[in-house]
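histidine kinase (Floridaenema aerugineum BLCC-F46), 395 aa
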Amino acid sequence: MFDASEILTDQIDTILERWEAAVRQDSRIESSADLSETALKDSMPVLLNGMVKALAHQGSESYEIVASASLEHGSARANEGYNAAEIAWEYQILRRIIFSVLEPQLLPGSPEEILRTIRTLDAVIDEAISQCYTSYVQQRVKELEQVRSQLILTNQELTRLLRTSKDSLSYMAHELKTPLTSIIGYSDLFLRQQKQAVDVHLTVPNLRNIERVLQSGRLLLRLINDALELSSSEAGKIQLNLACIDVKQVIKDVVATIEPLAQAKNLELKIECDRAPNKVTTDIFRLQQILTNLLSNAIRYTDRGFIQLECLSHDDRQWSIIISDTGIGIPQKDLTRIFEPFMRASSNLHRRDEQSTGLGLAIVARLIKLLQGEIKVVSELGVGSTFTITFPGEI
Ligand code: ADP
């Protein structure tokens, strides 16, 4: 009499042996390289026993065995550093080997019996994959949550440090950069893998947690970079690299990088360079930094209308760049203070902005001073703001 559960029982050892060899040889499953035989097989023998029970019509018992073993398997694989795709490959190999080993043995069965066997095996493997991914994702999300709370603490500590000490700040910020970059890289990778793996049914809250880690990580990195920049300018450590440059080209390049931000908010970017000087002597990188900061602020604090940049030469001795917007404006009382670190104008206190570090204008003001220029701002609440920077003709 045809008994699929008996057929599978006889072949379990062969299947496991072939599966182990195939996984070890598969270059797509790198994380298996350092695992012992027991660790690699992990829940696979239990899974196969679960299949035997399912084929012997012990459905609910089989479900329990498979579900709990696969849940454990997911956490184990997360700890062993597997990515989602590697887990999927392992199951795919298992499916292929089971069917190739069983195929000749199943042939004596009737079409109905063969079909029922294939369906049962498929259903058990699908259940295993689903449970395994559930715990894998839970494990990863738990780790990401921990990372996120650490980032928040670090963020608070760094902010405190920024306000109190300048020397240890730059040391501290350097120390933080490496782990932060890896946290962000890791979360980024995880998110991408999750989005690519078709088998993974990610819940919306899980995805949101991952996004949150990335967001706070990125903001913290920006804060550290800005803080470093500020502290080196205050310590007189910025080395200028002066050269004769084509200012129109620099403006064009900066505008090209910033344009998508304006487009995303439906803001027109008007550039007026007819009266710009042909060549100026300045530090190209610092000038780009200044323009990027002022233009992105203009876009950030403007909801409708336009942003305008005008570059003009007054005479041989001076040239200016004027950046104006039709944004929220800045109250008169805050106009001088916005160049201080962490100063936010009262007009934007209600805005929660992921990009904002409160350090941009402080850096801009110091860079302009370093280039022997000056910055002025005029603004009207609800109408817009105009930042004018003026540089000497020769530095
Ligand atoms: P942030 O990262 O908060 O933008 P900044 O140092 O660049 O920090 O700017 C300081 C503050 O100045 C901002 O928080 C905002 O209140 C105000 N501000 C800067 N640029 C503009 C602008 N173009 N329009 C309105 N407010 C601005």
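The chain is about 60% helix and 10% strand. Strands lie at 242-245, 268-272, 280-283, 306-313, 318-325, 374-380, 384-392. ok done for today
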